[in-house]
Design a protein that fits this description.
This protein has a domain of 193 residues: Distorted Sandwich (Beta-galactosidase, Chain A, domain 5). The termini are far apart. The longest helix is centred in the last third of the chain and has 15 residues. Helix content is 8%, strand content 40%. The protein is globular, with a radius of gyration of 25 Å. The protein is mostly beta strands. The chain has 2 helices and 20 strands. The strands form 3 sheets. A 10-stranded mixed β-sheet has the order 8-9-10-11-19-16-15-13-14-20.
Length: 333
């Protein structure tokens, strides 16, 4: 580690200040950082604080807290670039894939090397990953942030360097690690919070819902190993739902020489349940939403209730006693 350092910091009344710290270690591992704060000649009582550290290696760039590691590959080997999520004890929590298209295959980002840098934003380190498309007409900057409490922010800025307008979609696909047989999924429908075992979660096509009835709120949660992996998006985003994971899509229209920034998509990666995800959704997306979630129901019970309601609204079919005629071999197509 680096030797002891002394730094002076001025903090005006009723304000805050940040002191960036750069660490150099001989190798990977967890380290305790001890600081002593002296205010007007008087030493303050020591306190424990969570911090976020950032690092760039030959193949990956990472953001690290005491509990969580968020890392992104820099090489051209990945079909869909993304980020990996893991607890500091090595437990895999899954990840998020990034795609830009159409075409999504081959994607404009296929085979590209990402250049990483670290910037200080709002007092915390952020990873900035930059690349250009194969035809050199699109430039990308992915931004990844992490708070000490496990809130991951994912953003993207794209620039059209070509002479023609471009219209593309940005896709974030959440892929939780699925080895926990007791993992559960939570999803907010209109009037109901679905909460059930992930392995028994039905296909969304079996929920008997119209497309605009899928989710009433912009969050989705997966619980496993005592941790929660939740996805939060803005109302402007479009959504594709799989059994136990969402795909968030943002449309970007780029005139020649123009840039566009997609709204931030958030991940909540922390010990706890889906209720923490919904609390973060209220904090960042809908502060005016009710504090209490809709009543919780298992997925199967919700399906049966909706199907019963749908059947009750349909007119009763007349029962015809006309005998069924089977096609003879000569009349079959």
């Amino acid at each position: 580690m680096t030797p002891d350092r002394v730094a002076a910091l001025e903090v005006p009344a009723k304000s805050a200040a940040t002191l960036p710290i750069t660490l150099a270690a001989w190798g990977a591992g967890a380290f305790d950082l001890t600081t002593t704060v002296v205010v007007n000649g008087r030493a303050m009582e020591p306190a424990s604080h969570r911090v976020v550290a950032a690092g760039i290696g030959p193949e990956r760039a990472s953001l690290v807290t005491g509990d969580l590691t968020v890392s992104a590959g820099l090489g051209p080997k990945e079909w869909r670039p993304g980020i990996s999520l893991a607890r500091r004890d090595g437990t895999d929590l899954g990840g998020v894939e990034f795609a830009f298209g159409p075409p999504f295959w081959p994607s404009p980002t296929l085979g590209q090397v990402w250049e990483a840098r670290i910037e200080q934003r709002q007092g915390r380190p952020s990873l900035i990953l930059a690349a250009t498309s194969r035809d050199r007409e699109l430039a990308f900057e992915r931004t990844i942030t992490l708070t000490p409490s496990g809130l991951v922010g994912m953003g993207l800025a794209a620039t059209n360097r070509g002479a023609m307008p471009r219209s593309h979609s940005l896709l974030w696909s959440t892929n939780p690690e699925q080895s926990d047989r007791d993992a559960k999924v939570a999803a907010p429908l209109h009037g109901t919070t679905l909460y059930d075992i992930a392995a028994d979660w039905p296909d969304w096509a079996n929920l008997a819902l119209a497309p605009d009835e899928h989710l009433a709120e912009q969050w989705f949660a997966y619980e496993a190993h005592g941790w929660c992996l939740g996805t939060i998006w803005t109302p402007r985003a479009r959504l594709r739902l799989h059994r136990s994971a969402p795909e968030v899509l943002h449309r970007l229209d780029l005139a020649p020489g123009e840039s566009a920034v997609a709204p931030t998509t958030y991940l909540v990666v922390a010990p706890g349940t889906w209720r923490e995800v919904r609390a973060r959704w209220r904090q960042f997306v809908r502060p005016d939403a009710p504090a209490e979630a809709a009543p919780v129901r298992p997925a199967l019970r919700a399906i049966l209730a909706r199907r019963s309601s749908s059947t009750a609204r349909q007119p009763r079919r007349s029962r015809s006693r006309t005998p069924r005629r089977d096609a003879s071999p000569s009349t079959r197509p």
